[in-house]
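Hey L., structure's done. Input below.
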Amino acid sequence: MKSSQVRELARRYAAGQLNQESYRSQRRALIDAVTGGQQTLVYKETQAANSLRRGGAKLLALAVVAVVAIGIAVSLALKGSGGAHGNAAKAPVSAPTAPAAPAPSPGPALVHTFVEANDWNDGSLDTFTHRWISLPTDEQSKARDSLMYPRLVSELRDQITSEKAVSGGGVDPHLATLQKMAKALGVTGAS
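Output:
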């Protein structure tokens, strides 16, 4: 994926490296310079960083699964051996079990996963939009009430603004995909 100075600026703001006032003033200056012809947008390739980040997450997930599997195997091995103190009959001991944490709702989980991935390519946007549309209304409502939803809407609006600046008013399929997602979410003032 290629990213421009505008997208980099948006990422720095989303990461908390810039306050809102500084972000808006720098963004306005950059957009004015680009539209005035004083500066051209320079794109840089960011796919390697994203795939490295995803690779690290996959490695971590694999390590967690391996540790859990080893723990289960050791537990079963100890349970099956009957202990080291002979054949004395023992009453089964039931350990108190902690209640399992409820699984996250699909709506908030969809929003959280998308925001954390920070992948704004057309395929990712289309996948999110299709999954969003297929969610039941109550799950969409839960997602809108989640902590990550305002961040999603803010980043979506920033992406649309950036893409409008880059396209210069011309036909832009990526902008259309962003606007389709905004429409599906019911985000007003983003088109």
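Residues 180 and 186 are 10 Å apart (CA to CA). The first strand starts at residue 2 and ends at 3.

-- N.
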